[in-house]
Task: inverse folding
């Protein structure tokens, strides 16, 4: 692709555990089938016209923004209680020290203290959706951590520092969930469905705010939203969205995916 062409940035739902290799899809083949189709389409759109992927997963938190520098990253199986084969998956994508250096430099210039990681591996918030979108594992991937405390304003500022990468062939992806209350997922209750619907409607309305500063300020105050804490008792799966919204700059945000998993509403967003 042409370097000056700015790529969109995405917030995607990554689902639960290693759902991508589970035959029963946790008993929800329709919901997970829809998510699989979305992630496959995303990969088809970009597999031939991006240089690298920078991903922020809801499953990695550090004291400062930490950049994964490994050249040959392993998979980090940060889930429990699944069949043995789910701990022996094959997705041999490469890292990109070059992109990692760029991320480090941009964050440092923006005033952040950063750290490097070389051993951890890609967690399932990274490898599960990317195995579906980019199964050939030919596009280099760098993962960036969340920052402990999960302060929305910090993560938006991190995203703002990284916006320039979108004009250099780097696809920025926030991997989380618009609803992440495990009790709600497991209950199958109508209250969980209603909570997720109300929060996702607020989230979509917020992402669609045309003024980026107002959009970001509203995201910072997400706990005031309807059913916010019922949908996110802890916000690690929402925080990747804050970073992506920061990386959007003045770009418009829009609903890009709407579906359901285990009876609750889930959404994904695209920022131009």
Result:
């Amino acid at each position: 692709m042409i370097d000056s062409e700015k790529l969109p940035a995405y917030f995607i739902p990554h689902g639960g555990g290693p759902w991508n290799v589970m035959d029963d899809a946790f008993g929800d083949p329709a919901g997970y089938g829809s998510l699989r189709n979305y992630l496959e389409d995303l990969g088809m759109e970009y597999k031939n016209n991006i240089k690298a992927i920078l991903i922020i997963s809801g499953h990695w938190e550090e004291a400062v923004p930490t950049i994964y520098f490994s050249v040959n990253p392993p998979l980090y199986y940060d889930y429990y209680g699944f069949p043995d084969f789910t701990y022996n998956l094959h997705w041999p994508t490469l890292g990109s020290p070059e992109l990692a250096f760029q991320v480090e430099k941009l964050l440092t210039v923006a005033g952040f203290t950063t750290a490097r990681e070389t051993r951890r591996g890609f967690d399932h918030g990274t490898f599960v959706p990317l195995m579906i979108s980019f199964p050939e594992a030919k596009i280099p991937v760098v993962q960036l951590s969340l920052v402990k405390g999960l302060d929305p304003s910090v993560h938006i500022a991190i995203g703002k520092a990284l916006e320039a990468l979108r004009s250099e062939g780097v696809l920025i992806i926030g991997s989380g969930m618009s609803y992440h209350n495990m009790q709600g997922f497991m209950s199958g209750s109508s209250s969980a469905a209603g909570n997720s619907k109300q929060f996702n409607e607020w989230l979509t309305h917020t992402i669609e705010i045309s003024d980026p500063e107002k959009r970001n300020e509203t995201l910072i105050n997400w706990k005031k939203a309807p059913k916010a804490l019922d949908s996110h008792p802890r916000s690690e799966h929402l925080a990747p969205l804050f970073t992506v919204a920061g990386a959007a700059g003045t770009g418009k945000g829009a609903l890009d995916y709407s579906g359901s998993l285990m009876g609750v509403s889930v959404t994904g967003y695209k920022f131009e």
